[in-house]
Specification:
Shape: globular
Distance between the termini: 57 Å
CATH topology: Cytochrome Bc1 Complex, Chain D, domain 2
Structural class: mainly alpha
Number of helices: 6
CATH class: Mainly Alpha
Number of strands: 0
CATH superfamily: Cytochrome c-like domain
CATH architecture: Orthogonal Bundle
């Protein structure tokens, strides 16, 4: 039997089969990434072609970004951003970290952790706006 169909006792050769033998963290990260990618087809907040803006996003986009942080980031960092699977995103826990580093973490994710890259879904200016909001205490309005 060829390797395409597989045989008992052989190691998995397809990426999906190999994933089943990877550490649980890799599976969680893949699930999050797949969820985010699938959501981009159904939810307007994941607009990769979002128009650039200077300091503040337009009111509609601002609302989308707030919802993204509260719901999508909150799924790991806690719905109140006080921590969960990921660390707390509060001013007192982020205040000593450079804005550039926090922005890069949002855009590029953290390899080897469940933190996915968000660059396909927002501009650098939007990521920096989110960081600035987190440092001030993230807004509660939607």
């Amino acid at each position: 039997m060829n390797q395409m169909h597989g045989t008992a006792g052989r190691t998995a050769s397809r990426p999906v089969d190999r994933l089943m033998h990877d550490p649980p963290g890799a599976r969680i990260a893949l699930k999050i990434l797949l969820f985010v990618m699938a959501s981009s087809f159904f939810h307007p907040v994941f607009a990769a072609d979002a128009a650039p803006y200077s300091a503040d996003p337009a009111p509609a986009r601002r609302s989308e970004l707030i919802n993204l942080v509260r719901q999508d980031c909150g799924s790991c960092h806690g719905l109140t951003l006080k921590g969960g699977l990921g660390p707390a995103l509060l001013p007192e826990t982020l205040g000593d970290k450079p804005v550039e580093s926090l922005t890069a973490t949002i855009l590029q994710g953290r390899p080897g952790t469940p933190m996915p890259p968000w660059k396909p879904f927002m501009t650098e200016a939007e990521a920096q706006w989110i960081v600035n909001q987190l440092l001030k205490g993230f807004p509660s309005e939607r």
